[in-house]
Design brief:
The complex is a heterodimer. By secondary structure, chain A is α+β, with helices and mostly antiparallel strands. In chain A, 25% of the residues lie in helices and 23% in strands. Chain A has three domains: 107 residues, RNA polymerase II/Efflux pump adaptor protein, barrel-sandwich hybrid domain (OB fold (Dihydrolipoamide Acetyltransferase, E2P), Beta Barrel), CATH 2.40.50.100; 48 residues, Dihydrolipoamide Transferase; 198 residues, Chloramphenicol Acetyltransferase (2-Layer Sandwich), CATH 3.30.559.10. In chain A, strands 10, 13, 16, 17, 18, 19 and 20 form a seven-stranded mixed β-sheet that branches. Chain B is α/β, with parallel strands linked by helices. In chain B, the strands form two sheets. Chain B has an eight-stranded mixed β-sheet, with helices on both faces. In chain B, strand 9 and strand 10 form a beta hairpin. The chains are: A alpha+beta, B alpha/beta.
């Protein structure tokens, strides 16, 4: 038996109101599944279950306010009852003092527990972490499984057998299989086959009406993105090259200027406009990266119009900064902030999402170190900017702390060869690493 | 993006229906829980809507949902803390999606910090405001100017605050805001002519300072 206690949600908090039980006595709970909700001062908090098992007793009813570390419920985790039941604070309460031994609460006259399914007691011995993980990831109710291990303990094989028997036709069970997937995307070949004239998003192969699935039509934007991505993968010979770039000098320039920029212009200065500036210079030196392919002709664009990928709710749009090479770092930051804000509020003009000649995607803002972006057709390359992080690096046999990021260039190998792509990316790298100018 | 200061992305959603913004919040919360994104501050303005928190009391809703509907006001029951509240044009609604494991792990400190952000932002426009014990929110000489209601799941916050800039305060007649029979105020009713954009900028700037976050628009 595991005691569940009222967690401490902050230093000054001594009690909480139990507002709602999300599970009833007798129900099976999975570890980390929301178990109940508490409310303290305009804040409602879901408390996850500290253990897997059956919710054996609910000791505190909805609406009651109790002190922290008060036992609110007991979970039968199938462990041998040896008398000493250790209270387990719900996992959120990591700051709580080691809870006092379960004090006899005045609520001892609690509602009589529902007769708990004893099946768990009989079958589930102590569970290994792997089994717990598999059960959690596959949403398996462990009370439904008969253990064949020592002392009727549930083993990995038992779970695999159970999963195999559940999926008809039996699917091979991979260790730590992912949670029941949404309908899988169609194989790419199939999509490619439908490409030539009108690119269509083929409907996913029927997977049968498995319980818990949900069918939802794609939004128009989602369909366009799907179409565009598959079209690009079908059209271009994608290759990605990654360069490690030392942003320390850029970070210094940015630190020096950002207070001023915020005060004077009202937006924050990020690393992105520095990358845009360096890219413009490199594009002037390597115009074939600022080109398109038409049949067997190469179209060199005079203007540098940079597409900036902006994540939207449920989608993606790539607004364009026209004549980006004519703008200063601050001007580029302003354009980025403005386009991103208007993209998110759906206030872009149609001409602002057309005519891009090269694109940049800043997945670093989501924490990615590097990725392999898809080329935005009809362009021939896209630069991905990874997150800038301080790292130890070796300089002249000494270890130094530098601000490092990876730049990933995906290029169309039909037109651009690896050596050229690396010269281009190397040029961006050398501009950023040697950044000496004041930000203007 | 730099190691010394954590990032918080700002997403200005513009004018968005409550239900759509709720879905947007839920997406961000899931991504934040999985660590896929940094902290976010969603800024939005809702069309007329009355929402009821998990612990709301229906007696604090003075008009039946049918009457609200006839007046062009939507009605929603949500999972945030707090009682009943009104959102509408002229109000800045902020939904911080923060992982409090990376910020004090303290829900009270979080609510107090949100109040501080608003109090400091208002001070920049010459408006004096304060906290009142036992009445979460931000108060002025004319009444309550900002409401707060928060939901937390695995230490990740959702819902947040609503600040009246030039809200038509008549709409509050339909409810007893947060169960408190006290007047509501707006920056405009206090004589401040500030534009929405400037107030948003001030909130963002103070949010970054109070929570020690690098506020990023992209």
């Amino acid at each position: 038996m595991i005691d569940v206690v009222m967690p401490q949600m902050g230093e000054s908090i001594v009690e909480g109101t139990l507002t709602k039980w999300l599970k009833k006595a007798g129900e099976t709970v999975v570890r980390d599944e929301p178990l109940f909700e508490i409310s303290t001062d305009k804040v409602d908090t879901e408390i996850p279950s500290p253990a897997a098992g059956v919710l054996a007793e609910v000791l505190i009813e909805e609406g009651k306010t109790v002190g922290i570390n008060t036992i609110v419920a007991r979970i039968n985790d199938g462990a041998k009852a040896d008398g000493a039941s250790a209270p387990v604070a719900a996992p959120v309460a990591t700051q709580a003092e080691p809870p006092a031994p379960p004090a006899p609460t005045p609520t001892a006259a609690a509602p009589t527990p529902e007769p708990v399914a004893t099946v768990v007691e009989e079958t589930a011995g102590p569970l290994s972490p792997l089994v717990r993980k598999m059960a959690r990831e596959n949403n398996i109710d462990l009370s439904l499984i008969k253990g064949t291990g020592a002392g009727n303990r549930i083993t990995k094989q038992d779970l695999e057998t159970y999963l195999a028997s559940k999926n008809a036709p039996p699917a091979p069970v991979v260790q730590a299989a992912p949670p029941p997937p949404p309908p899988p995307p169609p194989p790419v070949q199939q999509a490619v086959a439908t490409i030539p004239q009108t690119v269509e998003v083929p409907s996913p192969p029927r997977v049968g009406e498995a319980p818990g699935t949900r069918v939802e039509p794609m939004s128009v934007m989602r369909q366009k993105i799907a179409e565009h991505m598959v079209f690009s993968k079908h059209t271009a010979a994608h290759v990605t090259t990654v360069h490690k770039v030392d942003f320390t000098k850029v970070a210094k320039a940015r630190d020096k200027a950002k207070g001023n920029v915020q005060a004077q212009y009202g937006f924050s200065l990020t690393f992105l406009p520095f990358v845009l500036k360096a890219t413009c210079v490199a594009l002037r030196q390597f115009p074939i990266l600022n080109a398109s392919i038409e049949g067997t002709n190469i179209i060199y664009h005079r203007d540098i119009n940079l597409g900036i990928a902006v994540a939207l709710e449920n989608g993606l749009i790539v607004p364009v900064i026209r004549n980006a090479d004519e703008k200063s770092v601050i001007g580029l930051q302003r354009s980025v902030a403005d386009l991103a804000a208007r993209a998110r509020s759906r206030h872009l003009r149609p001409d602002e999402v057309q005519g891009g000649t090269f694109s940049i995607t800043n997945f670093g803002s989501f924490g990615s170190v590097f990725a392999t972006p898809v080329i935005n057709q009809p362009q021939v390359a896209i630069l991905g900017v990874g997150t800038v992080e301080k790292q130890p690096v070796v300089i002249d046999d000494a270890i130094a702390i530098r601000s490092i990021a990876y730049l990933a260039l995906t290029f169309d190998h039909r037109l651009i060869d690896g050596a050229l792509a690396d010269q281009f990316t190397g040029k961006i790298k050398s501009i950023l690493e040697g950044w000496a100018e004041e930000v203007s | 993006m730099i190691a010394t200061e954590r990032a918080c992305q700002i997403c200005d959603l513009g004018r968005m229906r409550y239900a759509d913004a709720l879905e947007r919040q839920n997406q961000s919360v899931e991504l934040r829980k999985s660590g896929a994104i940094s902290d976010q501050l969603l800024i939005v303005e809702h069309p007329h809507v009355v929402t009821m928190g998990r612990n709301g009391h229906h007696e604090n809703l003075l008009a039946r949902p049918e009457l609200l509907a006839r007046s062009g006001i939507e009605f929603f029951e949500t999972d945030r803390g707090g009682d009943v509240t009104y959102h509408g044009p002229g109000q800045i609604v902020g939904y911080p999606i923060l992982d409090l494991r990376e910020w004090k792990r303290d829900v009270h400190a979080y609510v107090r910090a949100i109040e501080q952000v608003i109090i400091d932002a208002l001070a920049g426009f010459g408006i004096e405001s304060w906290r009142e014990a036992g009445a979460t929110g931000v108060w002025t000489s004319e009444g309550k100017i900002a409401a707060i209601g928060v939901h937390i799941s695995r230490w990740v916050t959702s819902h947040g605050f609503a600040l009246n800039v030039d809200t038509d305060l008549n709409y509050f007649r339909y409810i007893v805001p947060c169960g408190l029979t006290r007047p509501v105020a707006s920056m405009r009713s206090l004589g401040c002519q500030a534009e929405r954009g400037e107030v948003v900028a001030a909130l963002i700037q103070n949010f970054g300072r109070v929570f020690e976050r690098q506020m990023e628009t992209l």
